[in-house]
Amino acid sequence: MMSSRNAILEALGRVTLPAAAMPVIDVEPNLEDLPGQFEASLNKVGGTLVRVKGLAEIQQYLDERVAEGQQVLSLVEGLKGNRELDAQRHDLKDVDHTLVHGQLAVAENGAVLIKDCDTGHRVAPYITEHLAAVVKADTLYPTMHQAVPKLDLAPGHHAAFIAGPSKTADIEQALVIGAHGASSMTVFLID
Amino acid sequence: MALIGEIESHASAAEKFNKDEARVNWHDKALWALRHKRDLAAESVGGDEWERLKQLGSEIKLHTLSNLANYLQEFEANCQKNGIVVHWAKDGKEHNEIIHGLLAKHQVKKLVKSKSMLTEECHLNPYLEERGIEVIDTDLGERIIQLRQEPPSHIVVPAIHLKKEEVGELFHEKIGSEKGASCPTYLTKQARYHLREHFLTADAGLTGVNMAVASEGAVVVCTNEGNADMGANLPGLQIHSMGIDKIVPNLDAVGVLSRTLARNATGQPSTTYNTIYKGPKAGGEMHVVMVDNGRTKLFQDELLAEAYKCIRCGGCLNTCPVYRRSSGFSYNALIPGPIGIAVSAGDDETHSMAWACTLCGSCTKVCPTKVPLDQIIHHWRKVHAKEGKLPYGKRRYMPLVGRLMGSEMMLNGSMSVARGAMRILPDAVMKPFGGAWTEHRELPKAPKTGSFESWFRKNREEK
């Protein structure tokens, strides 16, 4: 009996759709005030932008959360919380705040690219109650046309464009922030 | 109830939904709100750029479909390099067997699922439940309808047919939330706590696929809630089910389609999560199941194949005047609305689905990949007519209507009689001749003398 793989490929061999070339992506980006565009987009998707000059201000934010008695996990070099990355991913369930490194960010939609090489466990940016990312201003891209091809993801890895906190409007179209992923998203943009 | 082959026709099912006029208006408004948000999002990108994105989306999908065999093989080869196991399933049955085989091998007792219209199409949940596996749908809307034992009524907002009070009652009964609660924030938080326990105790996660990137050997999953990523990243075993139409060539294509998907669905600039899986987690396993289930058959027809340019944003449902006023459950098909008719009217034994459409073309206009939905729906009408399968009434009177309208003399003569009658007879006598059309509408007023044709001849033709 023919395998399903061969059966599908054979059926596709009989398909005669007119040849169509892959188009050239020729959309001109708007490069004006990318940080401003990013902030407007991030606000629209429910996130918060904090513009900082250096890591010290971010450390202060983490210290304040620690002082409040929260479980704070920093996955960014040079910044400290009060929680080490657990050996078992399920143990991250009671982490309140997680700080990660963002590879780049997208002005048009407020998304930050977070790779698993920066998060220890893949689930870290999803399971935490609150998520914060550190992004350098020179890694802002205008749209997904520029950002997605910069993905550069190694085989066997995972990455996510995360735009704001998790949300849903499945009950009568009422927007609720905090569905299954993080309930808030803060982006520290280093000028 | 008008049953055709023991299945209810669209018109009959819609008539029942239409009995509660207040609810119809509420449903209509909820969907139109989504359409409005979509318009604002498209405008914020800019009209010219938005139209360009639609054109690019259409060309990318057409290019992919016309080279699908190559791209499927490229995707498979690249997945293998990344440690992803790829499976091919010719139909829903084989898809379910493959999934069950994987779950059985890993002794999975509990599976957490995120939204996947494909697994609905394959009826995966009952298949697994019959075999002793607990299946938990984790998207909030999906969980609501799963607890109600209902199918989705919309492909993006599956519980759009329900009111918050109904959800409150359901959650009180099934997950122990407070009696009488109806605040969406409270109910969503209750679902968060309830489902968090399931994420932490699941043995496997299954998601749908928004895009499968051939050049990368990776799948892209888009959600707002983060449920797909909780499900894929906590248990060791992750499975992704996809129709073979979900392939895109490369990351450029992801860039284009990720710009239109959420904007056209809900008016958001992006879904909260656009996540890319290019291999299993350390110590885990990742499987992708690619399913045909009738797709290659529709690809044989050049026009019908275009239905698979669809990226499942649901925009055509939100704008459709028939869907908004008849709801997803009237269609006798898993995927309702214009795209549902386009992909499933071939299997519609009631021969009524392709008529659940006014051919207004609004769906085609809003589609982010330019699927010619109205043309496809019109094409299905011809297919059903040619097979001699029109409903009895239509089969009898449509040829007569055709003959009447094809003859100028007969058409003008009968219109003259109609105008005369409308001038002298009361509406109550005339309205029944309009059939269902005049049930909720008034008749137009006939001109006092003459006709449009005579007015045109006198005023325009000689000039």
Automatic annotation (TrEMBL), chain B:
Query: Has keyword Iron-sulfur?
Result: yes
Keyword Oxidoreductase part of the UniProt annotation: no
* Residues covered by the 4Fe-4S ferredoxin-type domain: 301-322, 347-379
Q: Which UniProt keywords apply?
A: 4Fe-4S, Electron transport, Iron, Iron-sulfur, Metal-binding, Repeat, Transport
Q: One matching Pfam family, short form?
A: LUD_dom
- Record's InterPro entries? 4Fe4S_Fe-S-bd, 4Fe4S_Fe_S_CS, FTHF_cligase-like_sf, Helical_ferredxn, LUD_dom, LutB/LldF, NagB/RpiA_transferase-like
Recorded protein name is: Lactate utilization protein B
Instruction: Record the organism.
Output: Ferrimonas gelatinilytica
